[in-house]
Write a structure and sequence with these properties.
By secondary structure, the protein is an alpha+beta fold. Helices cover 27% and strands 23% of the residues. Helix 1 links the parallel strand 1 and strand 2. The longest helix is centred in the middle third of the chain and has 25 residues. The chain binds flavin-adenine dinucleotide.
Length: 449
């Protein structure tokens, strides 16, 4: 960025909307925040820069929400709007689930269901609209600025939720932030046509990737229900870039598309003989796993999750294991029972048991983890919550919390908290987290039992 500045002339900005709650960013996190606040009676507006809602799940084509059951596979611990939406989509999939009970969907169907959900709940929304700044008074936000085809406008509201992933509002508020070393890399996903069964994709990348300019990658993807021989592919990790920065984001998009073609070319040469592989749909925006984290009143830690700590103000139940994509390709999983497995780029594994190594004796292995409300309460800003992957979490906790069934619940909690704060005329810091958790539960959110 240049060191030179110019002063933009001051101008009058039209107030285009006034609301109780304004949500910026329309992934399922933001949509669910908006819908939960609207269902409680708030007037809600939602702003999204893409042409659809759903974020990484739609624009990024990542079409898997993990199971709603605990790790015993017997008790449902996640419900709420995630379940409501998959209940609506799954009839279109013939009720398809993958081997682990994860909900795989056609991302384009999810777009349509999220539109319907917002319409049914009377949320005012703007697509193709960028959040571009905010105005504060003391420790409150009074308005945000947006940019779209109408030019620049302002939205006034009493409460603001930042669901931008990167935490664009938190950044502009000057909240304390940090970046993990070796942040999890972005991937540009695509839908690929071509039969895949019996292909050792990972092995192919290891053996032939270099010929196509591909680094070792561990190969990951999944089916698109009812779309024969079409799979979602995500083997395009792009390392060493920070996608909350304009130049890096631009480079990542271009590099991601280059890798998509390289993978398809590799498969056409070395894949199943006689089979043709094609890109049928490229993500409209690169999938960003991680950028910046913003400090709140409480930091989630890997230990607090994997040891299954319980909280009276729990706003989320989660079961997804710690999953850290490593710099330079490779992946580590850590589970409740202590087992861990690091798969290196060359296919070798390091396995062990972290409970034994740390001398942690446990009579009962937890089957799900929780997150307390204070994890989303900012230190200073009174009418603001950031919900999403900007969460205050250490490396391992982030590796678990970052999946969508978790962030969906955090979005719901943010929407409920916004409503309760306005209803009780309290700052977010003054809210009783137990109250928020109860209201959240009553709306059918996480089954917090
Ligand atoms: C390749 C990949 C594979 C993954 N695999 C899985 C998986 O299998 N299952 C799973 O559950 N999770 C998976 N994850 C993780 C998960 O998808 C993300 O952590 C999650 O989507 C983040 O949600 P979010 O709401 O914080 O952010 P996002 O989904 O990034 O949503 C942010 C939203 O805000 C909008 N926005 C941003 N800035 C602005 C602005 N200035 N103005 C207006 N709108 C704005 C964006 O357009 C977007 O819609 C994967 C992630 C990636 C990248």
């Amino acid at each position: 960025m240049s060191n030179f500045y110019i002063t933009e002339p001051a101008k009058q900005i039209p107030v285009v909307y006034e609301a109780d709650v304004c949500v910026i960013g329309g992934s399922a996190t933001g949509v669910f925040a908006a819908v939960r606040a609207a269902r409680l009676g708030a007037r809600v507006v939602l702003v999204e820069r893409q042409n659809c809602f759903g974020g990484v799940a739609t624009s990024g084509l990542v079409n898997i929400w993990h199971t709603y059951l605990d790790t015993s596979g017997t008790k449902q611990v996640i419900a709420g709007l995630s379940e409501e939406i998959t209940d609506r989509i799954e009839p279109l999939n013939d009720g398809y689930r993958d081997h682990a009970g994860s909900h795989c969907f056609n991302p384009h169907e999810l777009k349509i269901e999220l539109d319907r959900l917002l319409n049914e709940n009377g949320v005012k929304y703007y697509l193709h609209t960028f959040y571009a700044g905010l105005m504060t008074d003391g420790s409150k936000i009074t308005a945000v600025f947006i940019e779209n085809k109408d030019g620049r406008g302002a939205i006034k509201a009493n409460f603001f939720i930042d669901a931008t992933g990167d935490g664009d509002l938190a950044r502009d508020l000057g909240m304390e932030s940090y970046v993990h070393p070796n942040i999890q890399p972005p991937s540009a996903c695509f839908l690929m046509q071509g039969a895949f069964r019996d292909i050792d994709y990972q092995g192919l990348i290891r053996r032939h990737g270099e010929e196509f300019g591909l680094e070792p990658d561990w190969g990951w993807g999944g089916p698109v229900p009812r779309c024969k021989d079409i799979s979602m592919r995500a083997e395009t990790h792009i390392f060493g870039l920070r996608c909350d920065r304009a130049d890096d984001l631009t480079k990542a998009e271009v590099e991601g598309r280059r890798k998509m073609r390289a993978l398809v070319e590799m498969l056409n040469k070395y894949g199943k003989p006689g089979e043709f592989y094609n890109i049928v749909s490229a993500c409209s925006v690169i999938g960003v796993r991680e950028t910046v984290h913003y400090k709140t009143l409480w930091q989630a830690t890997e230990q607090s999750l994997l040891l299954g700590e319980r909280y009276p103000d729990a706003i989320m139940n989660g079961t997804y294991n710690v999953d850290v994509h490593l710099a330079g390709a490779g992946i580590t999983f850590r589970q409740f029972d202590g087992s861990y497995d690091t798969e290196n780029a060359d296919g070798s594994h390091v396995r062990g048991n972290w409970r034994e190594e740390m001398g942690i004796q446990t009579d009962e292995i937890p089957t799900y983890y929780q997150l307390p409300f204070r994890c989303i309460v900012p230190e200073k800003w009174e009418n603001f919550i950031a919900a999403g992957r900007m969460i205050h979490a250490d490396v391992g906790a982030f590796g678990a919390l970052r999946v969508m069934v978790n962030l969906n619940q955090i979005g719901e909690a943010a929407g409920v908290a916004a409503y309760v704060a306005l209803d009780q005329n309290k700052t977010v810091q003054q809210l009783d987290g137990v109250d928020v958790a109860k209201t959240l539960s009553r709306g059918g959110s996480a089954n917090l039992g």
